[in-house]
Design brief:
- The protein has about 110 residues and is of the alpha+beta class.
- The protein is built from 3 helices and 4 strands, in the order βαββαβα.
- It has a 4-stranded antiparallel sheet.
- The longest helix is centred in the last third of the chain and has 19 residues.
- The protein is globular and about 40 Å long.
- The mean pLDDT is about 95.
Length: about 110
């Protein structure tokens, strides 16, 4: 099983319920295809570096997961077919990136606990 990280930008015109539905759709897609979700983060509404489809903001969401390589093609096709997704990026993580992400999650958890 390889480690992957996917970040996608959702159009800003959606309500909170619609945004939750989009993120849960992709989480379920990953889990149905045998992926193990390691971490999920919602980064909220952010200003884009350049306009995409005449929009200057978007909701950012991140999934870090373990899965076999064949799931990535299904995920990418689903992203492309969904008009609510403005951009997406999926990267394979090496062992150093996995260690860094684990340390970062630990630090965030300690900060939240204080």
């Amino acid at each position: 099983m390889n480690h992957y990280e996917t970040v996608f930008i959702v159009t800003p015109v959606l309500s909170q319920d619609q945004l939750n539905e989009v993120t849960s759709k992709y989480k379920e897609l990953l889990q149905e295809n045998g992926a193990e979700i390691v971490n999920e983060e919602s980064w909220g509404l952010k200003k884009l570096a350049y306009p995409i489809n005449k929009k200057s903001t978007g909701f950012y969401h991140l999934f870090e997961f373990k899965a076999s390589g064949d799931i990535i093609a299904k995920l990418e096709i689903t992203f492309k077919r969904d008009e609510r997704i403005m951009r997406n990026l999926t990267v394979s993580l090496d062992k150093y990136a996995v260690e860094y992400n684990a340390k970062r999650r630990t630090k965030l958890a300690e900060k939240a606990g204080k």
